[in-house]
Structure formats: C-alpha cells, structure tokens
Amino acid sequence: MGALKIGWKGSVNDRRVASFRYRVEAPAEALKARGHSVELFKPANADQYQVAVFSKAYSEDDRRAAERIASRGGRVVFDICDNHFYNPFELPRYERARAEILEMISIANQVTCTTEALASIITEETGGRVRPVVIGDATERLRTRRRRARPAKSSLNLLWFGSHGSPNAPCGMTDLLLIREELEALASRIPARLVVCSNSAAKFDEHIAPMRLPTAYVEWSEEAHAKVLTHADAVLIPVTRNPFTDCKSHNRLTSAIRSGLPAIATGIQSYLEFEPFCSLDDWSEGLAALVDNYDGESARAMASRTYIEKVWSMSALTPRWEEALDLSKVDAHKARRIQRRALKAEPEIFQGRLDAIAAGNLTGWARNPMDPDQPVEVVLECDGEIVANALANLPRPDLGLFGLVSSDCGFSIPLGPLKTTDGQRLRVLVSGCDYLVGENPILIDPASGSAPGLVAPPAAPWPSADLFADRGQAVRLPVEAAITAQEHLQRNLEAIEALTRDLRRLLARSVIATADSPEMADRLSAAIGLVAPPLRADES
Question: Which superfamily does 156-303 belong to?
Fold first, then answer.
C-alpha cells in the first residue's frame, strides 16, 4: 500500500511562534524524512488527506475541514499544547476557546498533547471520555556560534527568554519579579547582568528595568535567541504556579541545558525529570552555586545531552507520532528506502584530528569542508557520556600550509577532574553525529586520572604558539604527526577529485541527452571540455 497523504495544520505558519516550530514543523519534517507523505495543510488539497493534524487549530474553518475529512473516513488528530481551559479572569475570548476546543475534540479520532498535566486537564474537561496521547516537545538544537570564556567568580551574564505573557494567567516576563530579591542580592556581591529576550519592550521597561542590577532587553528572533545563549553564563526560568503554567512543556529548560548552560528553574511537573541536570526551586543556593562552582554547574548541564538525545530528540519522538497518526498502514519497506535515499542525498562530511593533551586541555581541530566558515561544535565523551563541549573556532594558521581555507577551526577542551576507573575511555565527536575526531579512544591512566603529554592519536601539524600562549607549555608534535596529517588531507583530496569526476560524468550525459543530434552533443561536449565515459553495467 502506498503512503497515506497527511496534512498538518497549525494555528499559524510562522517559525517565530514556538508552537509552530515544536508541534507542526519539527514532527512534519521528521515524518517526511521517514518516508511519509506530509505537507503543511492546504485547503485545496483537503479532500486528498487520509490523515489531518490540527495543532492548536480550532477555528470555525478548522472544525469544518476536520468534519469533512472525518465524514469520508479520514483520520483527524487534534493536538493541544496549552491549557486554554484555564480562565480565572472569565475572559469571553477564553470562554469561546473552551467551547471550540471541546467541539474539535468531539470530531477527532485522536487527541495528542504535550504534558501529562495537560492530559489530566483534558480528561477532566471531557468527563473522562478522552485520554490524550502525550507526545512532548523535541528539544531544539540551537546553532550558537561562540561561547565566551568566563573567568571564575568575576561576573555573571544571566538570561531569561520566552513569551512576555498570556492574558488568561499570570506568567511570562513578570515571573522574574518572583526572584527580584535574590537577583539584587547577587548583584551586590559580584557584577551580575540580566538579559531578557522576549517580545514586549514595554513590559520590560515597566517591570524589569527598575530592578537594582544592570539589565538589557533583546527583541526575540531565532538569530537573537542563538546570540544571547552564546553570551549567557546561565538561564533563569522562574514560573508563577497556576493550572496554565503547570501544563507547560520542558522546551525552555532543555534548550538551555542542552546548550551547556546552567539553569535554575521553578519545578513545574515537566521539569522534574531534569533535576539531575539543573537547580529547581532553590534560588539562593542555585545562584550561589553559579558563583562558587560554575564549572561543576556547567558540567551538570552538559551531562543532560545524552539523556535528551535518547528521550527528547525528534528521532526519539517520531515513532510516537507515527502511532498517534496510525501510520502503520504505510509500506514500511518503501518508507525505509525513501529515508535511505534522503540520508545519502545530504551527507555530512567533516575533517578533524586530535593534537595533544597539554596543561589539562585536549586540543585538536575539526571543520566541515562544505561550509568552512561555520564553526562546528565538538563534544567530549567519557565512557559514552558527554562531559564537555567546545566550539572549533580557534585560529589554526598552520593548517593553511596544507591548503585548508578558513583555518579558524581549532578547539581546546578543558579536561577537568576525571574519574579514575580502569579502562576509562575518552572520545571527541562532532556534536549531533557520529563523526569521530581522531581514530582511537584516548585511554586514561587510573593512577593519575589524566594522560599528560599524550599525543592522541598522531594528528595535525604543530599547534601554533598563539593557541597555547595562555595555557602553559604545549606538547609539540613530532614530524611523523605532520606526515600523518598530510596523508589524511590527501585522502580527502582524492575523495573530492572522485566526486568531481562523477559530477562531470553526469553533466556530460545531461548535455548528450538534451542535444538535438549526436553531432550537436559532440560539439557541446567539446566546447565545455566534457567527455562522457562509457556506462558501467550497473548504470545502464
């Protein structure tokens, strides 16, 4: 059986809106990558959809479209990500929303939502008739460019980000007033600065700017969000507790800790499982830990990555969407073939080597040759668990000698205290994929907990003196390491040459196929210097 056609509709089609990114764009793209036929809902195609997902979409037009699809046997899934039943101020808008949501639920074959707390509310509101399937938000991978070095105990850049608030419940930017005393006390001890990235400068000026500590406002955009995360030292997420905020997902917290930023937050239900990686509900102790043990708090946040990738990545959640949408009828073999083709069409190619361990830092270089100006992130794994990360953006002029353009691709990862179990292994990987920077794991001596002076493995040419100027004496690599690096680069050049030959072959065949005659094909090929090699047996 062929793939079912799926239409996915949000209340808006705007990436600036978190619910669109988390509940429409991300799952739709993930299902498409697995071979399913998914598109943003188009009214003109409504009669073609066997499955339709309405995410936070319950207008009169949405309900009519859902009824038409259901009436001809299509599957309707209604997805909810906010508790719009909560209306303590008796706002007419939310009275209407409650009635519209309940009507949409009555049409749907399946209801999905973001949290267990919200699922309980929906079950209560429907008199126990509906028990939603809980599918949480996948954690966003934010492309931060450069993390500033933070001298110990010198200063703190604190960040709050999110929507400024909602009319039906106390929440949003003014939640920062809950911890005003703690923030002002901190600022009296050390230089501390609060940055707010949101969507209401007026609310910031009224409520946050008067605080007795330096503050700054940044209008939210994807680019601005990534930039403020880059320069932040920690993220603060105070929350005014009520039935609306208690139903919120974990996405703000997990996007912070996955970026390696220590986070202090109010312990709403969806945050509790991340308590090993952040501070919950103790603002005085949490802020003090940022001052007294910042490296420890950073390592604690970084340790979340393995768990988040396993449980809260889009790849981990996609099977749950497939089940909710009842996509088991799809030809599984066809879906896998499409997915394999998609993976082959966009390969990730990286280059990199390890240099040495010097003065407690593991150094090396890594780059994406297809996008050399965009630094890649590397992560340090200890026995399979991520313990540190770094951006490969340090100067490496030595690599220019081997023809590598844009040679600011060096990294230096502080090793810090390590466990001393026998056989402990360290690996450096490009973040988000399995590319191993270096060919073998680094073995740690249990007696010392480190590998001083180890060249692991033979790597790039000599590290530049500037790279280690403020990190103590670096280990200088032997000539054999430079030779190994040359061989590594030569292999990459050969691969690029082979790819170029394949592209020339395809171009030549395209010219021949579109020519009006063999003579014209010969003239065109000669004019652009192309020769089409004979077809191989497997290409006929």
Answer: Glycogen Phosphorylase B; (3.40.50.2000)
